Amino acid sequence: MASAYTPAQIASYLTYIGLPPDTHPPAPTLAYLTQLFTHQITSIPYDNLSIHYSPSHSISLDPQALFSKMVASARGRGGYCMENSILFNHVLRAVGFEDAYLSGVRIRPRDDGVPYGERFTGWQHLVNILSVPGESVKYAVDVGFGGDGMTVPMPLVEGLVHYNSLGTQEIRFVREFIPNQRFRGEGAHKMWVYQVRNGKEKEWVSFFAFHDNFEFTEEDFGNISWYTSQAPECHQTWRTLAIRFLRGVGEDGRAKVAGKVMLMAGVVKRNVTGKTELVKVCQTEEERVEVLRELFGIRLTDEEVVSVKGRPAELKGPAAAA
């Protein structure tokens, strides 16, 4: 299936993320995929603000609606996992990675970003899978997982360790049956499990799992998105989240991830040295809207700002922030 975006839209997107269209190689390469990925995650944040700061309190996964919100509006808007991944999927196919497809992901529940329990959720996330000409393996790229997400395209190679841009954090894939899987006999499929550790002396922690040979379609996206944006038991419906990776320049002159800022409810943290520091605890909506503008580059309209009133995520003062 062809990309939903026209050449003019792709040129606009590339300009928006700071990767001029004239730098696009005649054939897609791993180096270009890496730069495209880096520019995407340092230009378009992960955020679930449309659930809370919009008149409809709903998410549209229509590719044109995603482009309008995250690129054409030029208001620094991002989206949550499915929004960012679907936008990027159409970009990938338009710039030459024609076999890029989306696979559903099971995640582990998290408390303040830290996974807990052994079991994984149902399908609540998406990851892009694609091939690179001349490479013998497929790659996974995830532009919508948040602060502990990958910052490099990852080949689907079991146990291969990658440095994850900040501090001593490392990431890898392993092939495992997750605890939820009961059938493990002949023909059963292990899952690719994304793991993170914050130093070589630390234990590996599993964050999410997926199959690379099972494509999800638009109908699947819609089912996942309805649950994550509307179900009261899903944390997305009552907690505001925003994560923006900060861009720097590497020794090779190319863009690199140089840090990240994170907002969870009213708490803002920053990591530029490998260590996370508290920046601010927002107690009112006015404070949070200002932080989103100043630290995340996200500019909400007046209509969006007032639409959070009366919602579970609304900040109402010191007692609510505590």
From TrEMBL:
Coiled-coil features, chain-numbered ranges: none
Pfam families attached to this UniProt entry: Acetyltransf_2
GO molecular function, one term: acetyltransferase activity
Top-level division of the source organism's lineage: Eukaryota
SUPFAM superfamilies: Cysteine proteinases
Keyword line: Acyltransferase, Transferase
InterPro entries: Arylamine_N-AcTrfase, Arylamine_NAT_domain_sf, Papain-like_cys_pep_sf
Ranges that cross the membrane: none
PANTHER family membership: ARYLAMINE N-ACETYLTRANSFERASE 4-RELATED, N-HYDROXYARYLAMINE O-ACETYLTRANSFERASE
Family to which the UniProt record says this protein belongs: Belongs to the arylamine N-acetyltransferase family.
Name assigned to this protein: Arylamine N-acetyltransferase
Species the sequence originates in: Staphylotrichum tortipilum
